[in-house]
Specification:
With about 325 residues, this protein is α/β, with parallel strands linked by helices. It has helices spanning about 1-15, 20-30, 55-70, 85-90, 100-110, 135-140, 145-150, 180-185, 200-210, 225-230, 240-245, 275-280, 280-290, 295-305, 310-320, 320-334, and strands at about 45-50, 75-80, 95-100, 115-120, 130-135, 165-170, 190-195, 215-220, 230-235, 265-270. The longest helix is centred in the first third of the chain and has 16 residues, at about 55-70. Bound molecules: trimethylamine oxide. Trimethylamine oxide binds near residues 129 and 220.
């Protein structure tokens, strides 16, 4: 990718006279503070995908602002978590800044395998996406965070709609969790109830937490929740990729999904493969973007705790992390 982008930019520079080039450089330095003669290679908007949880929306906006600093036009386009990769592989969508191992791996890797979707590398962040409970439940369910201890205690989590089974509050369906399959494969006395949107998870958590009431729900890290509520992830049988594809693997010989999510999952960036030709400098910038756990949690808190709009949160995030993104931009435009 790097080689391609160098070739591409020298081709473009070759077409410009050196006087024109000097003018272009100084204009760029004066307006944006960035010396870059090659970007934008096209004025067609780069389409950045929006998903349905907060850090992703804020960091998609952050990425949009960084592309704009290089002169690109951008569009933010909401997309389904599982269908987005097909849209990116065919060029309808171009960039996704938070690809989570626990949510996206299967569909992401399927389209990377076609050659039309790029794996643009990992963020620094380490992720976990799993069932989670407030620590006050540990007195009532001895043995937590072990999943079998949770299961013995299932009735404590019952609601009118699930009793005598416990309720597990899952996320929106398009997060593709297969938690129904997990409950079945592990023989758990739980019913999965899916929240329509992430904010429902947090409203239910807050209501339970205030009253010391039982709740077990989907949560993840990095997220703002861990700084506000004391809790832990449930430990299920260790994840293995075969757990999802091979029914004979694991403690249930007949069913897949008899394991937890990865405990140290990756977080990646994805792009339409056509960006190598059409927007090589933007692709180079995307390669350099790498968020830490703390940066992602902060991005989410600006909206979910401080009530900023995603756009204002992105502006604030850029203000707070100036040296971080300036290094990405200068690396991409050197
Ligand atoms: C991808 N997610 C952060 C919702 O687990």
């Amino acid at each position: 990718m790097k080689e391609r982008s160098t070739t591409e930019s020298s081709k473009r520079i070759g077409k410009l006279g050196s006087a024109a080039l000097a003018g272009l450089f100084s204009a760029a330095v004066m307006t944006a503070g960035v010396a870059n003669g090659a970007a934008p290679e096209s004025s067609d908007p780069i389409k950045i995908v929006l998903n349905n949880w907060t850090s992703q929306v804020v960091l998609a906006n952050v990425t949009a602002e960084l592309f704009k600093k290089l002169g690109y036009n951008v569009e933010l386009v909401p997309s389904d978590n599982q269908l987005q990769f097909a849209g990116m592989a065919n060029g309808d969508l171009h960039v996704q800044v938070e690809v989570w191992e626990g949510t996206h791996k299967t569909n992401f890797e399927k389209f990377v395998g076609t050659g039309n979707l790029l794996d643009v590398g990992k963020h620094d962040a380490i992720t976990r996406e799993e069932w989670w409970y407030p620590t006050y439940m540990e007195e009532r369910c001895p043995g937590l965070p072990d999943w079998e201890a949770l299961n013995k205690c299932a009735e404590a989590f019952a609601t009118a709609e699930t009793k005598p089974k416990g309720r597990y509050l899952g996320g929106p369906i398009d997060w593709g969790k297969h938690h129904n399959e997990r409950v079945q494969a592990l023989g758990m006395d739980f019913v999965v109830v899916n929240a329509g949107q992430a904010s429902t998870l947090w409203a239910e958590l807050d209501a339970a937490y205030r009253n010391d009431e039982p709740i077990v729900l989907f949560n993840w890290t990095p997220n703002w929740v861990e700084a506000r509520y004391k809790g832990r992830f449930v430990d299920f049988p260790d994840y293995d990729p075969k757990c999802l594809s091979d029914p004979s693997w694991g403690m249930n010989a007949d069913l897949a999904y008899d394991c937890g999510a990865p405990k140290k999952g990756w977080l990646k960036k994805a792009a339409w493969a056509g960006m190598e030709e059409k927007y090589p400098v933007a692709l180079g910038l995307l390669q350099r973007i790498s968020f830490t756990n703390a940066q992602i949690a902060d991005a989410a808190a600006l909206v979910d705790v401080d009530n900023l709009s995603p756009e204002d949160a992105a502006a604030k995030w850029l203000e707070t992390n100036r040296s971080v993104w300036e290094a990405w931009i200068s690396g991409a435009t050197d």
